[in-house]
Structures are given as C-alpha cells and as structure tokens.
Amino acid sequence: xxxxxxxxxxxxxxxxxxxxxxxxxxxxxxxxxxxxxxxxxxxxxxxxxxxxxxxxxxxxxxxxxxxxxxxxxxxxxxxxxxxxxxxxxxxxxxxxxxxxxxxxxxxxxxxxxxxxxxxxxxxxxxxxxxxxxxxxxxxxxxxxxxxxxxxxxxxxxxxxxxxxxxxxxxxxxxxxxxxxxxxxxxxxxxxxxxxxxxxxxxxxxxxxxxxxxxxxxxxxxxxxxxxxxxxxxxxxxxxxxxxxxxxxxxxxxxxxxxxxxxxxxxxxxxxxxxxxxxxxxxxxxxxxxxxxxxxxxxxxxxxxxxxxxxxxxxxxxxxxxxxxxxxxxxxxxxxxxxxxxx
Length: 342
Ligand code: NAD
Ligand code: WQD
What we know:
Blueprint: E1 3-7, H1 12-23, E2 27-31, H2 41-49, E3 54-56, H3 63-72, E4 76-81, H4 88-93, H5 95-115, E5 120-126, H6 150-168, E6 173-179, E7 181-183, H7 202-211, E8 217-220, E9 232-233, E10 235-237, H8 238-255, E11 259-265, E12 271-272, H9 273-284, E13 290-293, H10 308-314, H11 322-341
Parallel strand pairs: 1-2, 1-4, 2-3, 4-5, 5-6, 6-11, 7-10, 8-13
Antiparallel strand pairs: 9-12
Helix pairs in contact: 1-2, 1-8, 3-5, 5-6, 7-9, 7-11, 9-11
Bound molecules: nicotinamide-adenine-dinucleotide and UDP-4-deoxy-4-formamido-beta-L-arabinopyranose.
C-alpha cells in the first residue's frame, strides 16, 4: 500500500487523519517538531489502529533535515501538510513567527519533495480565507477577502504558492482543503484536541469549563443579526474531516490529472454559540455556566459551507452531528482529567 507523509501528524487533525489513513491500509510516516503536540499521541494512535506510525521529530523549516529525510524515504506517494501555527490572536501579536513557520515549511516541503519526484500534496487551508462573507453558504467560488490576521494571510499565500507551482509544472498536483470549524475527538477518547494554555476556540473552552478548569464561558457578543444574537459557525467533527483526507489521497493517486482542486469541508449547517452550549448540556447532562459579553474583535457574524462540490467530486459527506462532536469532545476532556489525576 502507498506510503503517505503526514506533516504535523501528532497534532489535532493530523493524528485523527493518521488513524483513518492507517485504517484504510496506508503506511504513514509523520514529521512533527512537537511545537504544539505531544509524543504520547503516538500511543493513542497505536491503541486505536494496532500499529505505530513511523515518526520523525524535526522542524520542517530545517531544509537540510528535510532533504536528508526525503533521501531516506523516496517511496513516499503523497503528502498531507498539516504542520503550521494556527492561533489567530498569537499571529497578530507575533506575525513574523507565523509568516516564517507557515510559509517556510510549505516552501521547503514543495522544493524538497519535488527534487525527489514526489508530486502529490494535500494542503490544510481554512475557511478563514473567505473573510467576512457577502453571501452564505460559502462555495469554493466565493471571493476571498482580505484576511483579518497574519495567520489567515499565510493560508492565502500558501494557496497561491501551490496554484503557481501547479501552473508551472504539470506533474505537480494538489488538493487544497478549506476546513470550517473542526471540533470533537475520536470515539475511543484515545486522541483529541490538546490546547496549550487557555483555549482560544469555543469547544475546548466549553469542555474545560464543564470539567471545572475554567469558571465560566464568555460568549462573545449577543447582538449579532442571527436568530439568537450569537455568531454562527459550521462545526465539523474531526473524524469526518480526517476521512475527507483519505478520500483526497485516494483521488489524487487514482486520478493523476495534475492541477489544483479546492474543496470546502463543512457540514453545510450553521450553529450558534448558544446552540453549542445547549448541545454540550444535552450530552453531558450538566449546566454550563456562561455569560454574554462584548463581541470579540475580528469575528465574522456567520459562516457555513456549501457541501455540494465535496459531496459530488470528492464523494465525501459529514456523517456526524453537533451532539456527536460535543459528546466525543466531552469524553476526551473527562479522559484527560483522569490521566492528569494519575
Ligand atoms: P495542531 O497545532 O494541533 O497541529 C499542527 C502540528 O504541526 C503540531 O503537532 C505541531 O507540533 C506541528 N508543527 C508546526 N510547525 C511545525 C514545523 N515547522 N515542523 C514540524 N512540525 C510542525 O493544529 P491542527 O488543529 O491539527 O491544525 C492542522 C492544520 O489545519 C494547520 O495547518 C491549521 O492551520 C489547519 N486548520 C486548523 C483548523 C482548526 O480549527 N484546528 C481550522 C482550519 C485549518
Ligand atoms: C467560534 C465561535 C466566537 C470562544 C477560528 C479561526 C479559524 C479556524 C477555526 C484555523 C465564535 C465564539 C469562542 C469563546 C465564544 N482556525 N466564542 N467564546 O473564530 O470561528 O475560527 O478557528 O484555521 O481560522 O479564526 O472559532 O472556536 O474561536 O469561535 O463565544 O471563549 O465561538 O466568538 O463565534 P472561529 P472559535
């Protein structure tokens, strides 16, 4: 079976994707510098799949190490590039850190891989590239607006680099996946999201409040032009997202038609912050303390995806709903508490 390089494979989405790739019979080799993840994730992957993926710990911005890596792995068929920094707020405070890591890692990867005739790349992009939408749902044809932070800008520039390379070289092909809001954890509660410090994203903040690590959730803004006044997002279960990567790999290796294809990955359904809280309360059987506060700078009012293209062309559709995602996120949070108590 084909060998797939997964950069950032011990991270949140990368670990779930590694599991789905291994379950589908692919051989996986991970590169991760553990800047935002933990080696223990590999144990979780092994418990789920019964196998340990090959793992190499280094920074993809280190070109020498990457070249040396490819010289030892010339049989790689395709790559999925997850490795990047992803915190919106931090990218505003430390923009150069984001440009350096997110742009250099992709540049190095494309240059080194192509020297070794590895021409298939799946890239982790984000719905953030659409900015504040004029019309919903967002389709792949929706205009890209100026990004509201350096993080978003790095995703737009990375997409441009991939498109330019594909135009210049017909052997190179790529699938760019624009994720909406990934949440939830693996059903086994053996892998999940591991935020460092205070979570900036909604769902880890909700589960950490539920478990007692945080006093209350602050709901950012209750006066938006939405049915309950809170922002709307398209929350996609991380396992559904992971499965879309397996479909993308399969499509690239089967099709070999060159060029770049772009797909939105969402459920097609928008949920408000208050609906997320209600879902958490349903699946956990407990009340969540929260209060509505000022809007957060840079938040868009509503964002959800059209699923048409991914359904039709990629043959992929999200199977899990909001309650499935909150339930698995909650099981994972409880598991972390047990582990930490040991
Ligand atoms: P994550 O931080 O959990 O995983 C990223 C992994 O990459 C981490 O394990 C980190 O240690 C590693 N890494 C970072 N820079 C590296 C480098 N230079 N060399 C080697 N390893 C490096 O993040 P995630 O949530 O799994 O996100 C994966 C990808 O998906 C990212 O590109 C992110 O921008 C994108 N994305 C994430 C979301 C989200 O909400 N989680 C939404 C849209 C897009
Ligand atoms: C969701 C909703 C908040 C925290 C971000 C990035 C995006 C992508 C996914 C990487 C919003 C509200 C949140 C809290 C709250 N990442 N909220 N209280 O902002 O849609 O997207 O993550 O590509 O680029 O911008 O996700 O989880 O931060 O927020 O009320 O404590 O929850 O206002 O409406 P967001 P999020």
